Amino acid sequence: MKTLHGQHIYLRALEPEDLDFVYQLENDATVWEISQTQTPYSRFLIRQYLDNAQQDIYEAKQLRLAICKNETFEAIGLIDLFDFDPKNKRAGIGILIQHPDNRNSGYGKEALELLIAYAKDYLHIHQLFANISVSNLPSINLFTSFGFELIGIKKEWIFNDGNYSDEAFYQLIIKK
Question: What's the number of CA atoms in the CB half-sphere (13 Å) around residue 71?
Fold first, then answer.
């Protein structure tokens, strides 16, 4: 499927071989603020998740894809559609590139471009939204470069390391 293939990366469904990668990401406390996680996940739970990850987006209400460099099968990040609402044609979108060496290399931008096109062309999504910490300037810049607009600020929304921080709500209305 060329739809999810870009110039430097492609998006693919999660596979059982992604167990270690997903385990590392889900148990990386430095990204728990982003994923709103507070406890580690066991390999058993992640294996169960991967076993069920092939559910249709209309059933699961989410779609998580691995971001891979074109020349490899190994994942460098994940990109998600979540809170999928087919009646109102909207979904949340999130992205995480695991290793800092792969960040700011254009992979996230290309992955976001591919998933927006997929959401528009195949799922007929009318709007996407993203929840981004106000201190996460790289993500804010990434999403706004695609036309996501700041809709509002959720004050003291995230509690992390004994402090509250604000979370911004961004929205993209997809034109046909």
Answer: 0
* Cβ atoms 135, 165 nearer than 8 A: yes
The whole model's pTM is what?
Answer: 0.88
Three-state DSSP string of 100-125: HHHCCCCHHHHHHHHHHHHHHHCCCC
Q: In this predicted model, what pLDDT tens digit does every residue of 125-157 receive, in sequence order?
A: 999 999 999 999 999 999 999 999 999 999 999
- Who contacts 111 (Cβ-Cβ below 8 Å, separation ≥6)? 6, 9, 11, 67, 77, 79, 95
At which residue do the structure tokens 């997929």 appear? 118
- Is residue 91 within 8 A of residue 125, CB to CB? The reply is yes
For residue 1, pLDDT over 50 is answered with no
Pairing of the two strands 163-173 and 127-133 = antiparallel
Domains of the chain: 2-173 (3.40.630.30)
Kind plus residue range of the DSSP H or E element containing 10: strand 9-13
